[in-house]
Amino acid sequence: MSTAHHLSILDALCRANPACDRTRIIETTPLLDEGLLDSLQIVTLIGELESSLGCQIPLDEVLPDNFQHLTAIGALVDRCLPTNSAPSAT
Amino acid sequence: MIENLSDILRTAAESHPHQVAVVAGTVSLTYQQLDAQTSELAGWLRTQGVQPGDRVGLCLPKTAAALTALYAVLKAGGVYVPADVRSPPARLAGLLADAGCRLILTTSRVAESLPAHWPADTARPALIPFPPPMAELSPGTSPSPEGELPDVPRSPEAPAALMYTSGSTGRSKGVVLTHRNILCFADWGRNQFALQPADRVASIAPFHFDLSTFDLFSTHLAGGTVVLLDEQAVMFPSAVVATFRKQQITVCYAVPTTWVQLLERGGLESAPPTSLRQVLFAGEVFPLPLLRRLMQALPQATFTNLYGPVETNVCTFHTLSGIPGEEATEIPIGRPLPHSPVEVLDEQFQRVPPGDVGQLCVRGPGVSPGYWQQPEMTERSRVAGEPATYQTGDLGFRDATGTLWFRGRRDHQVKIRGHRIELGEVEAALGSHPGVAQAVAVVHSREGELQIVAFVQPRDGTVTEADLHPHLAGRLALYARPHRIIVKPSLPTTVSGKIDRQTLISGAEAD
Fold first, then answer.
1. In the list A19, B101, B209, B502, which could disulfide-bond B57, CB 3.0-4.6 Å?
2. Which of B235, B266, B478 lies closest to A42 in CB terms?
């Protein structure tokens, strides 16, 4: 995941849950286990990701494995970006 | 006749030994397997010093092993104290210390974090990472071949569980539930919804939520299969709907918020689980337009609204005869269960005439004997001091046909996703921050879900929302934490000088 990509997802997470302390969240922080996302915040996060990163996350991708940590969310976003505008992997 | 919750498992193991009792992820256990594992663990609990009447904390993820632990505590004659493994350690420690647990079965992570938060004036119980090493579960620790441990009290009046609920002063209170309390509801549920061995009941509520007593005990009374959905799975509605279809779920009891999420975010309408025959809900008011949509999506199912606080468990029910017409604005909470007479009383505990609003009060064998080590609070909850009675604090009326209708609360208690929350607990937690002069919590609706928004007046003008979220994270359960904390130099008051909650609610909606 690129740094810009990581920061965009972290921004979206903190908008979805204002209680997140962004200084303590790294790429592998277990977001669900640590209670950093509840069901409504997941919906808000999806809206934030779609509007800020231009992806479209289908319902059947809204599964626990895809929201475990920032890396998993990054992979989800990559899969759900329009193919002609996918960012580089750097 | 079954008079003890652990008898449910033993009886089912005798009558349906090879029937699947529980499914959790890729794990499934037959009644025979669950009964054997439970007996082994119950014997081991005895070797760890657990005696009849001892409280045992269960602070575990929702797995088949956690269910084994729950039945093992009951089989050893103990009282299970379920606690949310995701709660902050300070809250968990306070709750489990209040219960006076003999030992606590939990995860390694929680076992490591609890000691630092344990109250200094309370003896610390053994914290046992679960499951214990298999080597410790030697055959010598098993009970007799009949599956009974010696000297386990058989009285149905013995406590079986302590369920903690929000307290208005900031301290959670433990509701004592006896074997009889739980059994009379579980048996009613089994009969009312005609549960059979072929039924597959989805368990969405966590074990520390009283809805779980239906999922576990009504299902096992019938010899059916309970399918556990863990804490993470229930946050993802499409995963829940997929489980319903894959597991051929026939019965599910959940709060309306969960059903609405399955409808709006789970794709339930586009691929409905056609096996579902009983849809049960409780804990909050179901918005009628959404209930109509759910009923249209599941035309094969019967829908029932259940009502009752944890102190009485379910005490009224209403099965819908069809989709409510467009002219309907609400559905009733219905009629009392046969074992739980419900009366509508005025301030002097006199019955009010049909149509008049009063407090809903419950009596009968479903009523809890009281709050754990809180005799004064228990006494205050009684109707005119009578035992086995409970003032719910809920308002309602009885119509001319005898049907009961809900009319809100007498106080600042709210329900969010079925969790009972005293706004006073949220305010007390905020008020404990040195930078807070005054705090008020309100609820408002956003995207069809209730959320808590807190307003804070700072003591010296420097406290921020970012300071307060971590403070609350150490004190409040996840579901009780405000989604927003708004810091204001002063809080609005009414002409009588009280905090103007209505203005704050409008402010929350505009924010």
1. B101
2. B235
From chain B, pick out residues whose CB is under 8 angstroms from the CB of A59. Answer: 238, 265-267
Distance of CA B470 to the CA centre of its chain: 26
Tokens 């399918």 belong to: B227
Closest of B51, B87, B359 to residue B209, by C-alpha: B87
Contact assignment for B236 to A38 by CB distance below 8 Å: no
pLDDT tens column, A33-62:
888 888 778 988 999 999 999 999 988 889
Which fold is adopted by the domain B413-510?
Answer: GMP Synthetase; Chain A, domain 3 (3.30.300)
Please give the Cα distance from B105 to B70 (Å, whole number). Answer: 10
Phi, psi of B487 (to 5 degrees): -90, 125
The predicted-structure confidence for B20-37, as pLDDT tens digits, reads as follows 999 999 999 999 999 999
How many contacts does A have with B, using Cβ atoms within 8 A? 57
Pair of tokens at residue A78:
């990559």
If you search the block for the tokens 């604005």, which residue do you land on?
B329
DSSP SS3 for B400: coil
Phi, psi for A9 (deg, rounded to 5): -70, -40
Distance from CA of B298 to the nearest CA of A (A): 20
Please check whether residue B404 is in contact with residue B334, taking contact to mean a CB–CB distance below 8 angstroms.
Answer: yes
B302-307 β-sheet, strand order: B27-30, B20-24, B225-228, B200-203, B251-254, B278-281, B302-307, B316-319, B335-336
Using alpha carbons, list the distances in angstroms from residue B167 to A75, B224, B328, B371.
Answer: 42, 36, 35, 11
The CATH number of B5-145+154-231 is 3.40.50.12780
